[in-house]
């Protein structure tokens, strides 16, 4: 029987149920001491998942994992200015390795070939506080990050996206959660913007 995305997510919740957190908690930026996005909707804190290959250790990974309608969605929340494309790529590589070894260890029917058929998407949400020329540079930087992810599509993930505008962030989170996110509040500097 083929490995299903729902089976993987259910196994993760069984092992890491205490790591289910709100999007507000998942998008918390410790350097700014605030959440990037305010939303009560829940997802799995993937930063807490240990790679069980050999010595259990926490790898670099996207902040969160959601499941909806046959798709596993990894979502990374980034401040935008300090985001390095190598870091963004490394996170999805190591997350897939962690997920692979978790499945191998915890799902009885696991087959290696099934893992590579899983529908996994990766979204990177950027906070962009800049204006003018710097905003244009940051937009170009984000497109480079997207381009760097494109060659992973069809290989370890089925699709990748980078977003920074409120309405697109909301759409990505709605896709990942099955429209459980009715609205979001985005924090940028001292501003709060509401999107519904």
Give the tags.
196 residues, alpha+beta, 6-stranded mixed sheet, 3-stranded antiparallel sheet, 13 strands, 37% helix, 27% strand
Strand order of the largest sheet: 1-5-8-9-10-11
Outline, from the CA principal axes? globular
Number of domains: 1
End-to-end Cα distance: 40 Å
Mean pLDDT: 84
- Which secondary-structure class do the elements indicate? alpha+beta
- Helix percent reads 25-40%
Descriptive notes:
Helices cover 37% and strands 27% of the residues. The protein is α+β, with helices and mostly antiparallel strands. The chain has one domain. A six-stranded mixed β-sheet has the order 1-5-8-9-10-11, with helices on both faces. Strands 4-12-13 form a three-stranded antiparallel β-sheet. Strand 8 (64-68) and strand 9 form a beta hairpin. The radius of gyration is 16 Å and the shape is globular. The termini are far apart.
